[in-house]
């Protein structure tokens, strides 16, 4: 990821208190942004929902865009952490990939409102910050690149090394498809059916299980 993580100044010097208060701000802002949108949400509403005054809010952030940045960064981090926690890297690359796909699709389903929030509201961020936020996806797709390369090395996955990144990005898009198109897909597939079908299609391209 080429863009650096943004440092948001704080008037408070205690790192633990900053972390605690910003977690409160993030949780309050997520609900407000999902229900009202970024533009219609005021910093006063964020402060009230966080449990402190507007003055206290500005001790931890400088602008509403800072709050949006913190929210987007936290959502990406949670997706990545949940995925890593669900994966056991023991076994063949193919076995790990099957587990990772199921875990990823389930995480995207569980966090669909939050993931959708990033794509709906991140455009309001300054250009450099937006590049960083969108670049956070590379950390998630990088997990799949690692798994695919393990499978190539142990011969359980059969794709050319030059296509690893493309396949990892394709997996990301399939997860996002469930978020963006769930309203339509639900008419034809349960989540388990969607996972089963997409996994079969992916494995058909890169394993012996055709």
TrEMBL record:
InterPro entries: Homeodomain-like_sf, HTH-type_Tx_Regulator, HTH_TetR, KstR2_TetR_C, Tet_transcr_reg_TetR-rel_C_sf
Keywords: DNA-binding
DNA-binding region: 42-61
This protein's record includes keyword DNA-binding: yes
GO molecular-function terms, A-Z: DNA binding
Keyword DNA-binding: yes
Domain HTH tetR-type: 19-79
Protein name: TetR/AcrR family transcriptional regulator
Organism: Brevibacillus fluminis
């Amino acid at each position: 990821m080429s863009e650096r993580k943004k440092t948001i100044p704080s008037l408070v010097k205690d790192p633990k208190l900053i972390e605690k208060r910003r977690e409160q701000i993030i949780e309050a802002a997520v609900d407000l942004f999902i229900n009202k949108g970024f533009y219609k949400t005021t910093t006063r509403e964020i402060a009230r929902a966080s449990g402190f005054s507007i003055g206290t809010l500005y001790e931890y952030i400088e602008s509403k865009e800072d709050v949006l940045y913190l929210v987007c960064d936290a959502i990406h981090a949670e997706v990545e952490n949940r995925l890593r926690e669900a994966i056991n890297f023991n076994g063949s690359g193919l076995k790990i990939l099957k587990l990772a796909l199921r875990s990823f699709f389930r995480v995207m389903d569980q966090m669909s409102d939050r993931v959708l929030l990033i794509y709906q509201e991140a455009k309001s961020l300054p250009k450099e910050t937006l590049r960083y936020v969108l670049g956070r996806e590379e950390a998630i797709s990088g997990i799949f690149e690692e798994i695919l390369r393990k499978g190539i090395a142990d011969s359980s996955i059969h794709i050319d090394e030059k296509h690893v990144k493309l396949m990892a990005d394709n997996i990301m898009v399939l997860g996002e498809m469930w978020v963006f198109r769930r309203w339509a897909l639900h008419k034809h597939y349960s989540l388990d059916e969607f996972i089963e079908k997409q996994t079969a299609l992916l494995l058909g391209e890169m394993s012996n299980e055709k």
